[in-house]
Amino acid sequence: MKPKAYIKTFGCQMNEHDTFQMxxxxxxxxxxxxxxxxxxxxxxxxxxxxxxxxxxxxxxFLGQIRECKQANPEVIIGVGGCVAQQEGKTILKREKxxxxxxxxDTLFRLPEMLEEVKGGARVCHTEWMPRERKIQNFIxxxxxxxxxxxxxxxxxxITKGCNNMCTFCIVPTTRGREVSREHxxxxxxxxxxxxxxxxxxWLLGQNVNSYRSSAEYRFYELLDELSQIEGLxxxxxxxxxxxxxxxxxxxxxxxxxxxxxxxxxxxxxxxxRILEAMRRNHTLDEYLEKVAYLQAAVPTVELSTDLIxxxxxxxxxxxxxxxxxxxxxxxSQIFPFKYSQRPGTPAAxxxxxxxREAKEERLARVIALQDEITAAxxxxxxxxxxxxxxxxxxxxxxNFMNGRTDGxxxxxxEDPTLEIGDIVQARVVSHRGHWLIGERIETPxxxxx
Length: 449
Ligand code: SF4
Prior knowledge:
34% of the residues lie in helices and 22% in strands. By secondary structure, the chain is an alpha/beta fold. The protein has 4 domains: 4-125, 3-Layer(aba) Sandwich (Rossmann fold); 131-260, Transcription Regulator spoIIAA (2-Layer Sandwich), CATH 3.30.750; 289-380, Transcription Regulator spoIIAA; 382-441, CATH 2.40.50.140. The strands form 5 sheets. It has a 6-stranded parallel sheet with strand order 2-1-3-4-5-6, sandwiched between helices. A 5-stranded mixed beta barrel has the order 15-16-17-19-18. Strands 7-10-11 form a 3-stranded parallel sheet, with helices on both faces. Helix 13 (316-329) runs parallel beside helix 14. The longest helix is centred in the C-terminal third of the chain and has 26 residues, at 356-381. It is globular, with a radius of gyration of 23 Å. Bound molecules: iron/sulfur cluster. The site of iron/sulfur cluster has 10 residues, from helix 7.
């Protein structure tokens, strides 16, 4: 019988993708997978340090699975990802049940690291891959054409690391300096994923649109070539940085059907003073000008953002600028956070001077305003016809299938004949929370269209 592995993923899409890579590597080593940690011979945590209290979450989960090791001392417990990169051997010291700690750059060395553990060692490998050049094919060759397709979706890492040094962010420390893959290497991976059934590909990078494989070949050229791959129905990417977004990219989105009308473009704060303290390298006006151009070029575009309230020094007036940005853009979704100090970031040296009550009040106002905006936007969908890519069954309602519109709105449609991977037209009949409810409509035959 094959040994079973259980992987718990914390955090973002980048981490989900790393988990898929871990699964690939372990599958090749003869592992099967289980959803129950207590049935596993190998338990891995793929950790994320971007959100609040990530270390606490990791240690609390390690506390929960400690009994698996007590019940069976042969079980191997490993911690990978950004918290592992940051904490390193501290994890081994604090949690005796952990056998292995590894960073994002050593993920593909899992087989040899597991051998070390089986040999009786407690192992920590958080070395960086050498970064002699800004171009680096950091996915080992054997995996380039064997990426994982999850249902209809696949991810491709096009850059790794970040050079931006935003003062609140730990990523440059945990993921290192930015490197980009050669574009031929990425295109090869994309074509192979489409052949393996991917209809939607997400391009991933901490700062995805700063991609460049040469002075002449940047994110624009890559998107342009990817959008010409036959059979690739949808391309999405995350997360772009506003300073690296430009009108040419908006025009490209407008001109290519398979570059989805969706953009997660984090503005973080509305005040230029705070944006400067965050070291974001753009002003609010620059952000709004780019967004206005995009909304004119692609009227159906759906925008989302991350934002932080209560960053050090944020006054009531600064905060009002954040609300102004929300009203002006009309995001379909926001991911708001109360500022909290992250050790190891430049902002941790700043005085965390916005009182907790003020942060909470600002967060509540942001959420209340966005709720109004979301409700009004949802209403505008009723009666609209959307193209939907079906990606799963509804968890509770029989005969309903779920999917995403081009703009990434979740939608559910009652139609038992639908299958995962179908691309259909649906008329929106109502909405509930973030969800749209649709009814399938017949697509006119090509002769009539
Ligand atoms: S762009 Fe800024 S927020 Fe994004 S990963 Fe880089 S440093 Fe962090």
